[in-house]
C-alpha cells in the first residue's frame, strides 16, 4: 500500500488541478441559478484528497532512496525533452506541507470570501497554484520547473487581479506579472545556455556534471547570475521586490499562500540549482549580497509600514533573503529547513491578521489598538506565528537560523552579523505589529471587534498547533542538533538579538511610554523606509522611462518612416497617374504629333543601333 | 536630274504637309495638308518607278491607286467636317477637344 501510494504520488498535482477545473463550473456565467459556494467545497475536498495522499505516502518514502519517474514529453531531432519526477522524502514532505497549507487557506477562504461571488475564479486559481507548486516540487527537470514557474506567474497575475474593478488591483497585477516575468526570462536564458554546456536539464545530472565541469570563468559567472535572476524575481528580492508589496491588493486567503509558499517556489529552484551556482564564485557572492541587502532593507522597510499586509510582505522578502544567503553559502538543507519553519509561521501570521482585517475593515495599523481582550485567539495565533518566525527558542525558525549561524560562524562572521540584525529587526517588526494591533487603547475602528466565525478561526488554530509542533517535528526528523552540541554562543547571540528586538518593540509600541504616532529620527528617513526606498519612482525613472522612450521612438519610426515609405510609393503612383492623364489632351493633332515623334524616335534608334 | 532630288523634294513636301497637319486650326486646311502628304508620296512613287523600274512602272500603277483613294478619302473627310460643322458651328480644330482625359 505504501509502495503504491509512493509511486502514484504524482497524482497529487492532478487532483488539485482537477479540483481547480471543477471549480470553474460554478462561475456566475455558467451555472446561473446556484451560488458559487460548491466551487470552494469541491476544491477543498480535492485538496484534502491530495493532502491525505501525500501524507500517507510519506512514511513509505521515508528513509528510502529517491525514486525517479520519467516520461518523454517531446522527442524531436536531437532534442529529447523528458518530464522527470523525483519522489523523495523531501519532495513528498514539501507536498504535504503545501497541500496542508492550501487546505487550511481554502477553509479560511470559505469564511473570508463569504460575501463574494467570485468563488469559482478564486478557487480555480488556488487549485491551479496548488497543482503548479506540487508539480514544481516533484519536477526534477530545470526545463519543466521553468515551465511551471511561468504558469505560476500567469496564475499570480490572475489571482492578484481577482477584483479587477479596483484600480490598484490592476496596476498591482500588472507589476506582479511583469516583474516576475523579467526574472523568469533571464532564467530562460540560463536554461537555454545550460543545455549545450551540460547536455541535460535533469537536476540530478546537472549536479553530477557540476562536480567535474570545467567552465570558462566568465561563462560560469554569467550562467550563475542568470540562474539567480529567476528566483530573484520570484522571491521578491531587491531590486525586483515591488511586486510583492503591490500584490497585497489581492484577496487575503491567496496572500496566505503567496507569502508562505508561492514566493518559496523561486527559492526551491535556487536550492536545486545550488550545485550549478557553486561553479561560479561571483554567482554565489551575488546571491549572498542580494540576500543580505534584501534581508536588511526589507526588514527595515517592514518596520516603517502602516499597512499590516504590506508590513508582513516585506518580512517575506527579508526571510527569502535569508534563504538566498543560505543557498549562497552552500547550505541547501538549512535553506529547506528555514523554508519549512518560515512557511508555517508566516501563513499563521497572515491568517491571524486576515481575520482581523475581515471584521475591522481597515488595514491601517495606526487605526488599530486594544484588540487583545476581545480577540484572544487571533492574538495568540499572532504571538505563536511571530515566535515561530524569529529566532526565539524553542520555536521553529530558531533552529534553522541557529544552524545557519553555526555554519557561518567561522567562515563568514559578517553574515552572522547580518543574520542577527535581520532577526532583531524582524522581532521588532513583529512586536510592533502586535503592539499596534492588540495593545493600547481601542480606536474608533476597533471599538467593536468580535472574534471571527469558525471557518477562519479553525484553520488558524490548527495551524497554530502545527506551528507549536514544528520543533518537535524537526526533532523527530533528526534535524536538530543532538544534546548541547550546537554553537552556544550563536544561540545566545540570536536569542539576545530577538530579545532586544522584542524588548524595544514592546517598549515603543506596547503601553504609553512612547508618544504615538511614533517618530523615529528625521521625517525624511522615516518616509524613505515607509515608501520602500521610493522603488516605484526608481522603476518609473529608469527602466519604465527607458522602455517608454524607446517604444515611442519605435512607434514613431514605424508610423512615419516605415509606413511613410510605403505610403510614398502609393502616393507617387497616384500623383503620376493624375499628372500623366493630361497627355490625353483631346487634340487629334497632338496625337498625330505623338505618333510622329514615336516613329521618328524608333527610326533614329534603328539607325543608331 | 537625279533620283535624290526628287526624293528630297518629296520629303520637303511631306514635311510641309506634316507642319500644316499639326499646326492648322482650320479642319479643311488639315485635309489639304493630308493631300500634300499624299502628293509627296505620289512624287516618291513616280520617281522610283522612273529611275528604278522603268520597265514595268509598277510605281505609276500605285500612284493611280493612291490618287483614287485620296479622292475618296478627301470626300469622306469633307463629309466628316461638314457633319461636325453642323453640330458645333465651327471648323476650329481647337474646339474639338471633348475627348480628353
Account of the 3D structure:
The complex is a heterodimer of chains A (609) and B (101). Chain A is mainly alpha-helical and 609 residues long. Chain A is built from 23 helices and two strands. Chain A has helices at 2-7, 11-23, 37-61, 89-112, 119-138, 142-160, 167-198, 203-212, 217-234, 242-246, 252-272, 274-277, 281-303, 308-328, 332-360, 376-389, 396-411, 413-438, 454-476, 488-509, 523-530, 535-580, 588-608, and strands spanning 67-76, 79-87. A two-stranded antiparallel ribbon of chain A has the order 1-2. In chain A, helix 15 (332-360) packs across helix 17 and helix 17 (396-411) crosses helix 20 (488-509). The model of chain A has no long low-confidence stretch (mean pLDDT 91). Chain B is mainly α and 101 residues long. Chain B has helices spanning 3-23, 27-51, 58-88. The interface between A and B is medium-sized, with 11 and 14 residues.
Keywords:
heterodimer, A: mainly alpha, two-stranded antiparallel sheet, 23 helices, 73% helix, B: 101 residues, mainly alpha
Query: Percentage of helical residues of chain A?
Result: over 70%
Radius of gyration of chain B: 17 Å
**How are strands sequenced across the largest beta sheet of chain A?**
1-2
Q: Which range does the strand content of chain A fall in?
A: under 5%
The beta-strand count of chain A equals 2
- Compressed to H and E, one letter per element, the order of chain A equals HHHEEHHHHHHHHHHHHHHHHHHHH
What does the average pLDDT of chain A come to?
Answer: 91
User: How many helical stretches of chain A?
Assistant: 23
What's the short version?
Helices cover 73% and strands 3% of the residues of chain A. Chain A is built from 23 helices and two strands. A two-stranded antiparallel ribbon of chain A has the order 1-2.
Give a topology summary.
The complex is a heterodimer of chains A (609) and B (101).
Chain A: H1 2-7, H2 11-23, H3 37-61, E1 67-76, E2 79-87, H4 89-112, H5 119-138, H6 142-160, H7 167-198, H8 203-212, H9 217-234, H10 242-246, H11 252-272, H12 274-277, H13 281-303, H14 308-328, H15 332-360, H16 376-389, H17 396-411, H18 413-438, H19 454-476, H20 488-509, H21 523-530, H22 535-580, H23 588-608
Antiparallel strand pairs in A: 1-2
Helix pairs in contact in A: 2-3, 2-5, 3-4, 3-5, 4-5, 4-11, 4-15, 4-19, 5-6, 5-11, 6-7, 6-11, 7-9, 9-11, 9-13, 11-14, 11-15, 13-14, 13-18, 14-15, 14-18, 15-16, 15-17, 15-19, 16-18, 16-19, 17-18, 17-20, 18-20
Chain B: H1 3-23, H2 27-51, H3 58-88
Amino acid at each position: 500500500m505504501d509502495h503504491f501510494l509512493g509511486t502514484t504520488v504524482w497524482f497529487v498535482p492532478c487532483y488539485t488541478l482537477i479540483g481547480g477545473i471543477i471549480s470553474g463550473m460554478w462561475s456566475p456565467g455558467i451555472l446561473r441559478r446556484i451560488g458559487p459556494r460548491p466551487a470552494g467545497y469541491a476544491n477543498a475536498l480535492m485538496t484534502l484528497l491530495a493532502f491525505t495522499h501525500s501524507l500517507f505516502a510519506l512514511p513509505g518514502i521515508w528513509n528510502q532512496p529517491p525514486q525517479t519517474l520519467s516520461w518523454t514529453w517531446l522527442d524531436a531531432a536531437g532534442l529529447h525533452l523528458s518530464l522527470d519526477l523525483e519522489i523523495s522524502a523531501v519532495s513528498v514532505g514539501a507536498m504535504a506541507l503545501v497541500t496542508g497549507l492550501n487546505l487550511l487557506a481554502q477553509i479560511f477562504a470559505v469564511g473570508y470570501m463569504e460575501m463574494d461571488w467570485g468563488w469559482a475564479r478564486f478557487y480555480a486559481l488556488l487549485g491551479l497554484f496548488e497543482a503548479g507548486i506540487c508539480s514544481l516540487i516533484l519536477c526534477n527537470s530545470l526545463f519543466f520547473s521553468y515551465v511551471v514557474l511561468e504558469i505560476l506567474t500567469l496564475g499570480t497575475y490572475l489571482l492578484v487581479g481577482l477584483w479587477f474593478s479596483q484600480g490598484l488591483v490592476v496596476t498591482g497585477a500588472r507589476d506582479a506579472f511583469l516583474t516576475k516575468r523579467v526574472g523568469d526570462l533571464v532564467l530562460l536564458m540560463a536554461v537555454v545556455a545550460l543545455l549545450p554546456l551540460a547536455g541535460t536539464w535533469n537536476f540530478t545530472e546537472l549536479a553530477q556534471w557540476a562536480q567535474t565541469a570545467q567552465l570558462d570563468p566568465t561563462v560560469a559567472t554569467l550562467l550563475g547570475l542568470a540562474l539567480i535572476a529567476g528566483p530573484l524575481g520570484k522571491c521578491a528580492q531587491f531590486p525586483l521586490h515591488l511586486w510583492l508589496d503591490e500584490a497585497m491588493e489581492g484577496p487575503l486567503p491567496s496572500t496566505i499562500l503567496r507569502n508562505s509558499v508561492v514566493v518559496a517556489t523561486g527559492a526551491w529552484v535556487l536550492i536545486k540549482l545550488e550545485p550549478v551556482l557553486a561553479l561560479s564564485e561571483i554567482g554565489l557572492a551575488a546571491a549572498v549580497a542580494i540576500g543580505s541587502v534584501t534581508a536588511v532593507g526589507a526588514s527595515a522597510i517592514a518596520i516603517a509600514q502602516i499597512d499590516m499586509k504590506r508590513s508582513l510582505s516585506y518580512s517575506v522578502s527579508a526571510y527569502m533573503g535569508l534563504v538566498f544567503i543560505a543557498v549562497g553559502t552552500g547550505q541547501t538543507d538549512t535553506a529547506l529547513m528555514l523554508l519549512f519553519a518560515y512557511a508555517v509561521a508566516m501563513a499563521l501570521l497572515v491568517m491571524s491578521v486576515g481575520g482581523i482585517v475581515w471584521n475591522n475593515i481597515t488595514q491601517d495599523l495606526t487605526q488599530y489598538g486594544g484588540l487583545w481582550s476581545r480577540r484572544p485567539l487571533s492574538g495568540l495565533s499572532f504571538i505563536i506565528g511571530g515566535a515561530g518566525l524569529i529566532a526565539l527558542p524553542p520555536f521553529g525558525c530558531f533552529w534553522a537560523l541557529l544552524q545557519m549561524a553555526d555554519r557561518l560562524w567561522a567562515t563568514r562572521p559578517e553574515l552572522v552579523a547580518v543574520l542577527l540584525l535581520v532577526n532583531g529587526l524582524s522581532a521588532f517588526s513583529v512586536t510592533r505589529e502586535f503592539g499596534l494591533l492588540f495593545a493600547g487603547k481601542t480606536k474608533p475602528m476597533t471599538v467593536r471587534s468580535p472574534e471571527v466565525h469558525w471557518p477562519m478561526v479553525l484553520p488558524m488554530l490548527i495551524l497554530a498547533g502545527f506551528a507549536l509542533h514544528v520543533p518537535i517535528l524537526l526533532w523527530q526528523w533528526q534535524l536538530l542538533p543532538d544534546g548541547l552540541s550546537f554553537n552556544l554562543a550563536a544561540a545566545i547571540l540570536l536569542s539576545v538579538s530577538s530579545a532586544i528586538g522584542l524588548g524595544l518593540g514592546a517598549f515603543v509600541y506596547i503601553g504609553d511610554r512612547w508618544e504615538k504616532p511614533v517618530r523615529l529620527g528625521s521625517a525624511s528617513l522615516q518616509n524613505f523606509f515607509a515608501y520602500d526606498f521610493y522603488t516605484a519612482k526608481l522603476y518609473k525613472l529608469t527602466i519604465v522611462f527607458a522602455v517608454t522612450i524607446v517604444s515611442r521612438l519605435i512607434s514613431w519610426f514605424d508610423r512615419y518612416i516605415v509606413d511613410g515609405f510605403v505610403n510614398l510609393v502609393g502616393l507617387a503612383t497616384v500623383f503620376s497617374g493624375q499628372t500623366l492623364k493630361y497627355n490625353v489632351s483631346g487634340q487629334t493633332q497632338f496625337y498625330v504629333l505623338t505618333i510622329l515623334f514615336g516613329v521618328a524616335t524608333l527610326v533614329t534608334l534603328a539607325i543608331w543601333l | 536630274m537625279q533620283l535624290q532630288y526628287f526624293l528630297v523634294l518629296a520629303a520637303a513636301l511631306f514635311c510641309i504637309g506634316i507642319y500644316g497637319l499639326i499646326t492648322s486650326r482650320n479642319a479643311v486646311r488639315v485635309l489639304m495638308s493630308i493631300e500634300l502628304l499624299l502628293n509627296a508620296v505620289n512624287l516618291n512613287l513616280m520617281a522610283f518607278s522612273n529611275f528604278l523600274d522603268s520597265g514595268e512602272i509598277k510605281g505609276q500603277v500605285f500612284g493611280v491607286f493612291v490618287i483614287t483613294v485620296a479622292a475618296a478619302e478627301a470626300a469622306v473627310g469633307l463629309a466628316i467636317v461638314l457633319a461636325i460643322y453642323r453640330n458645333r458651328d465651327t471648323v476650329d480644330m481647337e474646339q474639338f477637344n471633348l475627348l480628353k482625359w
